[in-house]
Amino acid sequence: MIDQKSKKAVILLSGGLDSTTVLAIARAADYECYCLSFRYGQKQSVELERADHIARKMGAAKHLVLGLDLDRIGGSALTTSQVVPKDRDMEEEHNQIPNTYVPARNMIFLCHAVAWAEVLGATDIFIGVNAVDYSGYPDCRPEFINAFATMAMLGTRTGVEDNDPLTIHTPLIQLSKKEIIKKGLALGVDFSLTHSCYDPVNDLACGHCDACLLRLKGFAEAGIPDPADYNK
């Protein structure tokens, strides 16, 4: 059960399946949701269009989109001309970090979420990281989230002066994609609005990148057709 410390919460919203489910979880817990998305130099814009639609449809108090130039740093197939890997062996996913990893992305995103939470007077942040069915990114692990929460308490006025505990909620971190999908459906999430693909073609999911494969696997295991549109 979520220990609610504030009526307001910052929700990191990418427009994908996981973050949309997290938004639904926060709403169900009666939080006033402030959604935060990023135009960080990713090669496709459809995810931000979906995030904006989702935030409005699901009653977010505000949806803020911040601009970051992570493409100028590079180092990822999501922000550079590197080729997004396709049809990787799902059993070997966790053995190496793929080139779709964006250096320190969740760390950077969470820093901005903490800053906005301070301004809003919120002590709760929700993020849809997952350490079960995921691409092997190091910033999706519980160890990282716990360490970041400690750092945020030490480096913010809220943490130092008010001693208000900052809670980073990761309600999906130990769930399989199948379990996430079922949780989202139970909360009324319309997954047709979500976009997960790393390398869309004309805004249609490719069906072959890690994100698509994990999504398709989750829906198949849940016994439910994936409502996303895929490039044929």
Helix content: 25-40%
Rg for CA atoms: 17 Å
**CATH architectural type:** 3-Layer(aba) Sandwich
Count of structural domains: 1
How large is the share of residues in beta strands? 5-15%
Catalytic activity: 7-carboxy-7-carbaguanine + NH4(+) + 2 ATP = 7-cyano-7-carbaguanine + 2 AMP + 2 diphosphate + 2 H(+)
Binding site for ATP: 13-23
Family: Belongs to the QueC family.
Pfam families: QueC
Give a description of the structure.
The chain has one domain: Rossmann fold (3-Layer(aba) Sandwich), CATH 3.40.50.620. β1, α1 and β2 (32-39) form a beta-alpha-beta unit. It has helices spanning 17-28, 46-57, 70-73, 105-120, 142-154, 157-162, 177-186, 210-222; strands at residues 8-12, 32-39, 62-67, 124-126, 167-169. α1 (17-28) crosses α7 (177-186) and α7 packs across α8 (210-222). 37% of the residues lie in helices and 11% in strands. The protein is α/β, with parallel strands linked by helices. The radius of gyration is 17 Å and the shape is globular. It contains 8 helices and 5 strands. Strands 3-2-1-4-5 form a 5-stranded parallel β-sheet, with helices on both faces.
Could you give a short description of this structure?
This protein is an alpha/beta fold. It has helices spanning 17-28, 46-57, 70-73, 105-120, 142-154, 157-162, 177-186, 210-222, and strands at 8-12, 32-39, 62-67, 124-126, 167-169.
Comma- or semicolon-separated keywords:
queuosine biosynthesis; metal-binding; Rossmann fold; ligase; alpha/beta; zinc; 11% strand; five-stranded parallel sheet; ligase activity, forming carbon-nitrogen bonds; 232 residues; 8 helices
